[in-house]
Write a structure and sequence with these properties.
Elements: H1 10-17, E1 28-29, E2 36-37, E3 48-49, E4 52-53
Antiparallel strand pairs: 1-2, 3-4
The chain binds zinc ion (ZN).
């Protein structure tokens, strides 16, 4: 198996890792409770997706 001849410098490693970034998730509005929710995901606030309840949300006061 090939092996590197020389060790990378810390700078070289860190410069490579400058491209490792978290991306900000797209946020849209839930059509049912108008809370912020990701598109194509069940709403974390009311648990609805595509007009029906898909996940049970533990909450004191459910929106609507
Ligand atoms: Zn919702």
């Amino acid at each position: 198996m090939p092996l590197p001849k020389r060790r990378h410098s810390n700078q070289r490693t860190r410069l490579r890792r400058t491209h490792y970034k978290l991306s900000v998730p797209t946020v849209s509005e839930c059509p049912r409770c108008h809370a912020a929710a990701q598109p194509h995901h069940a709403c974390p606030s009311c648990g609805y997706y595509n007009g029906r309840l898909v996940i049970a949300v533990k909450e004191k006061q459910k929106a609507d």
